[in-house]
DNA sequence: TTCTTATTTGAACACCGCTAAGATAGCGGC
DNA sequence: GCCGCTATCTTAGCGGTGTTCAAATAAGAA
């Protein structure tokens, strides 16, 4: 591993500037926040001129897309790990909790991920390897927990509802106005679990009206 | 009312540039989208120099705060109207639907509203008139529908869960990947209603596990 | 070696948020 | 009426941004 990982897209001068730019962007994002993520700053961080990135990305948005893609991969992994670590119906809550915790621990990256999704007007539905996306993992878990895969619309609706709840909670969990409630419940994780339990996560268990 | 509403902040040269700037910003937001909402563009739209806004707003963020504030007032009104038009338990779904429709019809404004909220790390909890905010309206509705106001944490959790679900749906409802589901359900509004019904909106009705 | 092509640079353009200095216009006191 | 006074607005400018383009450079092919 002489120059980190390279050799796949046939680097010329730099080694693998595309890779280096995405890494620099993630570094900036973590250290300085999303407002510091200018294309020029990324180039500076990677040690190249402001015009260099344009030979690897059409524009700034495409670089952000690449960053977002890595974010979705990380989220996938976190959710898969949480699912594997839990048993039975607790799997769903565990997945939701891992989702919200990922957003809490990577707020800038999470923002970039959803900005990209809004631009495309779609959530990523499959990873590069053809594997199921995080969204599909939630749906699969629903089926494993007893949702009828024949009732496709109901299954899809339950998945969407769960995803919406988790995303909303991820965006709102940091708001200060909930601090007293977290304290009353004994910490942040109990608070998150409590809200998740209030959401109608399980298919077929919603109130009839 | 000679020059629209004025006389409160004692305008000098322009009449009421502050008001005009917020209006110009809302006009730009609606016509050109959030990315076109630069402070200079707002000044241009209002017919003043790029430096003029700084005598009425500390910086760009403060102007956006003013725009966001008007957005929250509009959302308040929409939710209040929806609540008044529905009866019984349908009130909650009606409120949720009005929330999501507001976001759909004013996507750029909705974005500005939540950007401001994230900066402050809080949702607006009361309007200028001391009236209850949209968030409080949801909680009040929960009580009217039978939630026990004595169980304060449970009431709060239910309110948060409902708000999270509505916000998540508002952000996700426009994604193209749900088009086929909307079609299967007979349109967008049935789709929104279906997702809202899948969310655990009502306090005390969540599954026991 | 020479040719070709991918990569990177440096300079430039238009736009951005923001600041400072000066011009302008409405107000209160005389 | 006139005179400050102060709020308002403009002009000019700073450093930063995304993006383009011609020139320079370096790697591989012939």
The general outline of chain A is globular
Would you tell me the structural class of the helices and strands of chain A?
Answer: mainly alpha
Order of helices and strands of chain A: HHHHHHHHH
Mean pLDDT of chain A: 90
Poorly predicted ranges of chain A: 1-10
What number of domains of chain A? Answer: 2
Helix content of chain A: 55-70%
Greatest interface and its participating residue counts: A-B, 44 and 44 residues
Count of alpha/pi helices of chain A: 9
Characterize the main sheet of chain A.
Answer: none
Specify Rg of chain A, calculated over alpha carbons: 20 Å
End-to-end separation of chain A in angstroms reads 60 Å
Extended strand count of chain A = 0
Oligomer: homodimer
- Portion of residues in beta strands of chain A equals under 5%
In words, what does this structure look like?
Two copies of one chain form a homodimer. Chain A has 209 residues and is mostly helical. The first copy, chain A, has two domains: 1-57, Arc Repressor Mutant, subunit A; 66-198. Chain A has helices spanning 17-32, 39-46, 60-85, 90-105, 107-120, 134-144, 152-172, 179-185, 188-198. In chain A, helix 4 runs parallel beside helix 7 (152-172). The longest helix of chain A is centred in the middle third of the chain and has 26 residues, at 60-85. The radius of gyration of chain A is 20 Å and the shape is globular. The N and C termini of chain A lie far apart (60 Å). At the A-B interface, helix 5, helix 7, helix 8 and helix 9 of A face helix 5, helix 7, helix 8 and helix 9 of B. The first copy, chain A, binds a DNA duplex (30 and 30 nucleotides) through helix 2.
């Amino acid at each position: 591993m002489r120059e980190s990982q390279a050799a796949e897209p046939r680097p010329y001068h730099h080694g693998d500037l595309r890779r280096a730019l995405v890494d620099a962007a993630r570094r900036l994002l973590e250290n300085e926040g999303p407002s510091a993520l200018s294309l020029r700053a990324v180039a500076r961080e990677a040690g190249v001129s402001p015009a260099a990135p344009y030979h690897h990305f059409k524009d700034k948005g495409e670089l952000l897309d690449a960053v977002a893609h890595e974010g979705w991969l990380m989220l996938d992994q976190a959710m898969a790990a949480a699912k594997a670590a839990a048993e039975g119906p607790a799997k769903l809550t565990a997945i939701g909790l891992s989702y919200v915790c990922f957003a809490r621990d990577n707020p800038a990256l999470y923002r970039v991920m959803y900005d990209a999704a809004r631009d495309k007007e779609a959530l990523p539905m499959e990873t590069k390897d053809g594997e199921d996306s995080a969204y599909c993992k939630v749906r699969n878990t629903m089926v494993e927990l007893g949702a009828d895969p024949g009732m496709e619309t109901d299954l899809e609706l339950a998945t969407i509802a769960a995803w919406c709840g988790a995303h909303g909670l991820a965006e709102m969990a940091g708001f200060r106005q909930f601090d007293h409630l977290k304290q009353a419940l004994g910490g942040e994780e109990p608070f998150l679990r409590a809200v998740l339990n209030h959401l109608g996560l399980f298919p077929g268990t919603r109130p009839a009206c």
